Amino acid sequence: MVQAQIVNRGIRDETVLKAMSEIDRALFVPPGYRSRAYEDGPLPIGYNQTISQPYIVAFMTQKILPAVDSDTHALELGAGCGYQSAILSRIFSRVTSFELVPELAETARKHLEDLGIQNVEIVAADGSSGIPGAKFEGILGAAAFAHYPKHLEEQLKQGGKMVLPAGKDSQYLYLTEKKGTDLIRQKVLAVRFVPMVQK
User: Fold this and answer.
1) Domain boundaries of the chain, sorted by first residue
2) What's residue 3's pLDDT?
3) What's the pLDDT score for residue 199?
4) Which fold has domain 56-191?
5) Distance, CA of 17 to CA of 141 (rounded, Å)
6) Is 97 a catalytic residue?
């Protein structure tokens, strides 16, 4: 999967490739879809949610690689089954991941526990506001906001990066980086994600 679907499409960072190789996507896919676990496409995980395609997981992860090597904290919005969370666990010192659907949050916890991953906290709650007052080296959104969430930019540390989808009819992946007093925001890719559910 890594060679055919990721490297050949421009993913070059060794830490990302190593994480994608170490975390078996099949372990996160419902039994009825295990035969398709290595396809480069999203798959249903129940509750009208999906596990993202491997290329998108790698692409988004590569976009928010931390600029420092230690004591890094990532925020994930939409844990789903925990696959992206597991990948982030190999990149960041700590990961806080929100999942609104309690059953999926429990599934994600179980998957991470089975793999011995201990640096990810799954929070069963609406994460669309992030954690006001907290600061992160990386923020990743795994569901699409109807409108770009400027409020989350306030939670980026200096040099921090945020990648997430936003839009209704047409969705785009946005990459934002905090440099000094500037926030550099750009559209990087047209995408199709499940919508962010907020309470």
Assistant:
1) 56-191
2) 63
3) 67
4) Rossmann fold (3.40.50)
5) 20
6) no
